[in-house]
Amino acid sequence: MRLILLGPPGAGKGTQAQRLVEKHGIPQLSTGDMLRAAVQAGTEVGKRAKAVMDAGELVSDAIVNAIVAERIDQPDCAKGFILDGYPRTLVQADAVEAMLAERGIALDTVIELVVDDKALVGRIVKRAEDAKAAGQPVRKDDNPAVFEERLREYYKKTAPLIGYYYAKGKLRTVDGMASIDAVTAEIGKVVAAAAK
C-alpha cells in the first residue's frame, strides 16, 4: 500500500497517518524526519542537505527527492509507505512518479482531506491552547498569522496536486471536518478499495 495524504496544514494528515501506520504496519514518511535522519546518518545526500540548511537556505527539490528515493529503498518500505507533506509541488509529484516507475511500483491512492479554512484556524488555536494547558511546548506555526501564511503557501504550491492526481484517477476525497474516528473509517474504506 503506497499512498499520499494531501490537505492543508492542520487538516489532520499527521493524526491519520499515525493510525494507518498502526493498522497496516507501513512507515509514515515525513520529509522533515527524513532530512534529519539523513543528516544524522551522514549519508551523501544528508551531507548536501546539511550544508544547505547550515547556510540557512531551503533544501532544493533535487535533495529532497534524493532523500525520499533513498528512504523508500529501505526494507521497512517494501510493503508500502505513507507520504505525508510530500510531494508539495508539481515538480516533486513528477519526481515521485519517476522514482516509483524506476522501481516498478506505483501509487495506490492519493487521499485529500477536505477541510474548511476558517475551521482550520480555530483548530490550530485550540491545538495551541491544549498544548499550553498540558504544559507542552506550542508549535511555532500554531499562531493564526503564521498559520494563514502557511495556508496561502499551500494553495499556491500544493493545491495544484489535487488536479494532477485527479487527472491520473488516483485522487479520493475524504471529509476532513468529520470526527477523527469518522475520518479514519472513511480512509479505511478508500484504502480497502485501492487494495483490490
Question: Could you describe the 3D structure shown?
Answer:
The chain has 196 residues and is α/β, with parallel strands linked by helices. 59% of the residues lie in helices and 12% in strands. It is built from nine helices and five strands; from the N terminus they run βαβαααβαβαααβα. It has helices at residues 13-24, 31-41, 44-54, 61-72, 90-102, 117-133, 144-158, 160-167, 180-195, and strands spanning 2-6, 28-30, 81-84, 109-114, 171-175. The chain has a five-stranded parallel β-sheet, with helices on both faces. Helix 2 packs across helix 3, helix 2 (31-41) crosses helix 4 and helix 6 (117-133) packs across helix 7. The protein is globular, with a radius of gyration of 17 Å. The relative contact order is 0.18. The model has no long low-confidence stretch (mean pLDDT 89).
Distance between the termini: 11 Å
Envelope shape: globular
- Strand order, biggest sheet? 2-3-1-4-5
Structural class: alpha/beta
Q: Summarize the main sheet.
A: 5 strands, parallel
What is the N-to-C order of secondary-structure elements (H for helix, E for strand)? EHEHHHEHEHHHEH
Quick tags:
196 residues; globular; 9 helices; five-stranded parallel beta sheet; alpha/beta; single chain
